[in-house]
Amino acid sequence: MRKRTFALAATLIMLASAVQYGQTRQTSASSGYLTPPKVIVDMLDAPPTPGLIVGPDHKIVALLYRRSMPTIAELAEPIHRIAGARINPKTNGRQQRGGSVIGITIKSLADGTETKVATPPAPNIGDVSFSNDGKRISFTNTKENGIELWVADAATGKSKLVSGADRLNGTSGDASDWLKDGATLLVQLVPSGRGPAPAEPTVPTGPNIQENFGKAAPVATYEDLIKTNHDEALFEYYFTSQLAAIDSATGRKTPIGRPGILENVTASPDGEYILVSRLKRPFSRVLPMNGFPREVEIWNRRGEAVKKIADLPSSESIPINGVQAGPRGYRWRQDQPATITWVEALDEGNPRNKVPFRDRVVLLTAPFTGSPVEIAKTEWRFGGLQYTEKSIALLSESDRATRRNRTWILEAGAQPRQLWDRRQQDAYNSPGAPVVKRDNGGRGGFGGGRGGGFGGGGGLIMQTGDSIYLAGQGASPEGDRPFLDRLDLKTLKTERLFRCAEKTYESMVTLLDNEAKTILTEAETSTDPPNYYVRDLAAGTKRAITQFKDPAPQLSGVEKQFVTYERKDGVKLSGTLYLPPGYKKGERLPLLMWAYPREFTDSDTAGQVSGSPYRFTRVTGISHLFLLTQGYAIFDNPAMPIIGPGETANDNYIEQLVASAEAAVNKVVAMGVADRNRIGIGGHSYGAFMTANLLAHSDLFRAGIARSGAYNRTLTPFGFQSERRTFWEVPEIYAKMSPFYYANKVNEPILLIHGEADDNSGTFPIQSERLYAALKGHGATVRYVTLPYEAHAYTGRESVFHTLTEMINWMDKYVKNAGPRHTEAAAK
Q1: Are strands 703-707 and 750-755 parallel, antiparallel or unpaired?
Q2: DSSP assignment of 336-354, as one string?
Q3: What's the pTM value of the predicted model, to 2 decimals?
Q4: Are 167 and 147 in contact (CB under 8 A)?
Q5: What backbone phi and psi angles, to 5 degrees, belong to 45?
Q6: What is the pLDDT of residue 749?
Q7: Residues 512 and 534 sit within 8 Å (Cβ to Cβ)
Q8: Which of 160, 183, 211, 368 could crosslink 307 through cysteines, CB 3.0-4.6 Å?
Q9: If we measure between CA atoms, which residue out of 299, 265, 291 comes closest to residue 174?
Q10: Helix (H) and strand (E) counts for the chain?
Q11: 770 to each of 79, 118, 220, how far by Cα in Å?
């Protein structure tokens, strides 16, 4: 569409805004934070619905009760931002940005009896995990000066501190894991006797220098990197751990090996060996720590290295879409006492190299003195390897060029058999994922899960006779209908055991017995909040395990409609329309459209429906759905597919984006629920990028809200989202897609919001800062809000309140109460 320019009108609006904006709903002049209407405050402050983890015996579950939001004061506590991580120097753990667990209740699935776990005063709980026999449950408690480890009796709820005076080192992620014996915990501790942290030099000793000697190192853009020698010293100080075993009954600690920067640590299934990844110098200054040089070794329980698997350099030189040239994806076979598998690239890790096979998979068995045995080669890039309880393997591979996945069945003494060959994005024909057996409530290994697939192997695939079970979302033209199938590995035939009923949404949480006679499900409808049920598949009955109430009854009158429509080029689109409580049929409302573009290789998969119209409406955090309380209609997630074969989808990004948005606008107007002159557009991250582009290249919307976006793609020159061509390969595409280049064409009001501590790759705060300067320089109506201490997602209570108030104020002024749209004729 041709853009109109109203520089004078925009300037007058901007001047008026400076006087009028923000005079309502402000808490106080001293704080500066705004507070939304009471109905929203009440919804946000309501206790969140508890989470749930299942005991390994499938007889009990643990309900986890959480706080709703941290305060801005908590987020403002000093942290170090180094090596891609944010750590609290007082606790020697990760910065806490979400609502922590404040209570644990054990609940019997048989009779519903509940046992409250005794917790320490003022609990700040994390890393909740069942022992492998289900008799104990461990959890961490973060205090002001460190992280403790506690263990509770699952039967009585009595708990005790088992870490004593030692502190856990949580800088690399979860710092503890149960061994198979159900009594011993493998932990990372802050080394005893560690001295004070390195002091930052008051006077620089010299410049900070980076250099390269003719070797290509195409890397993405990252925040929180090591920048100075002092950062390196801090990284070594805080991330160095002492590995130890703790007896959960006595609290006795047995050190294992010497202290080191332990990126990942995973015990073998028999508990006799430990797979360890240790980071070492030189530390990269362009990658986070998962790209640092490392040594991968197998230790015995005394901490002695019995086998070195790999000595790997920095990942800086990995080509785009490539992989590590050396060993990667190290995992214990969960069906064997102590056998490790890993993957090795046969194409030097470079997808552009023409080779008959991309990868090979090898294994090595204790005592690890022999040579690795090759068990498979993959024509495409290795995707994953899982074993069943009867030692049958499922190996997957993927091809980016065709966006296809293949899965193979590997059995000893037999040729590989192909199980599936499917399009990656074809949700309608997804067979589901194998159901796995987890011994600790859903976790496996510890240390943050870094290193390209490390350690535990993801659990054993459950197998009964010749069959395994598959659980999936069940995407369909009517929406998602989750299912459970039984797959015979001999005949490859499937049997449907469960499918969500019509006009509800019910998904399987876990099998409760090996024969799949009973399952645990989570069920909800558009009016009933999610709750857990034991479903007897043979009898066709279900029994409620929880009775969680609606945490936001204020939205009980919301109407929800699933909407389908077409783009002018015939691509099928869909979205979910929400109408506020008290809506009267035929009334045209101000509407906010909230979307996020996605790339596809073909129109068939792009037009597939996602989600379900029968899910309960959950509204938390900075959700745009809170505007329903203010009389707005919301068109949520209207499809914005960007379609093209191979790597070409973005060649027509703007044209396809505008066409999808135009189709969405036409649909809600044709339905009689929206006024074409009172529709706003908004999005977060890539949705913010979309918002700025739609305002620059169309006149479909009266105003926009763009949160934490990237607007100049030349600042992400080695790719973004699904784009893997570099700026130097397709500079015209990067320029055309960048709304920064078209700031002079944005003539609708736009609200920019960004966390000042954004930690997401590519969405540095300077992206919003520079777009604001460009818009202001061209006389646009724009408001630029930065949130102190907030990352890519905003979690602080004050920040959440403020963000929602800004969104409401902006929509009220420039959409709900906007006057008639100017026309060129009227302007003349």
Answers
A1: parallel
A2: SSSEEEEEEESSTT-TTS-
A3: 0.93
A4: yes
A5: -85, -5
A6: 98
A7: yes
A8: 368
A9: 265
A10: 11, 47
A11: 27, 51, 20
Half-sphere exposure of 259 (CA within 13 A, CB side): 14
* pLDDT tens track for 258-292: 999 999 999 999 999 999 999 999 999 999 999 99
pLDDT at 501 over 50: yes
Under 8 Å between Cβ of 698 and 662: yes
Active-site annotation, residues: 685, 758, 792
Contacts of 651 (CB under 8 A, 6+ apart): 644, 733
- Under the banding of pLDDT at 50, 70 and 90, the label for residue 436 is very high
Query: Alpha-carbon distance 247 to 271, whole Å?
Result: 13
pLDDT tens digit string along 327-358?
Answer: 999 999 999 999 999 999 999 999 999 999 99
- Cβ count near 321 (within 10 Å): 15
CB atoms under 10 Å from CB of 20, counted, come to 11
Assess contact for 268 and 451: CB atoms under 8 A. Answer: no
State residue 459's pLDDT score. Answer: 87
For 291, phi then psi, to 5°, come to -110, 10
Helix H or strand E segment including 43: helix 38-45
Is the N-terminal amide bond of 282 cis, ω within 30° of 0? yes
CA dist list (Å): 214 to 211, 285, 292, 317:
10, 17, 20, 11
DSSP single-letter state for residue 319: P
Nearest to 750 by CA among 794, 815, 798: 815
Tokens found for residue 722: 């699904």
Residue whose C-alpha is closest to residue 711's, from 732, 730, 686, 731: 686
pLDDT (tens digit per residue) in 570-628: 999 999 999 999 999 999 999 999 999 999 999 999 999 999 999 999 999 999 999 99
In the chain, what percentage of residues exceed pLDDT 70?
Answer: 93
Q: 627: buried, middle or exposed (CB in 10 Å: 19+, 13-18, 0-12)?
A: buried
**What is the DSSP code string of 432-479?**
-EE-EE-SSSS--SBSTT-SSS-BSTT-EEPEETTEEEEEE----TT-
Tell me, what's the pLDDT at 7? 35
DSSP-based three-state secondary structure for 523: strand
**Single-letter amino acid code for the residue at 787:** L
Arithmetic mean of pLDDT over the chain: 93
Q: How many CB atoms lie within 10 A of CB 714?
A: 12
Q: Are 581 and 643 in contact (CB under 8 A)?
A: no
What is the rounded average pLDDT of the residues 206-227? 94
Q: Is the peptide bond before 367 cis (omega within 30 degrees of 0)?
A: yes
How far apart are the C-alpha atoms of 709 and 464, rounded to whole Å? 48
Of the listed ranges 3-17, 28-42, 561-575, 727-741, the one predicted with least confidence: 3-17
- The per-residue DSSP string of 621-644 comes to TT-GGGGGGGT-EEEES---EEE-
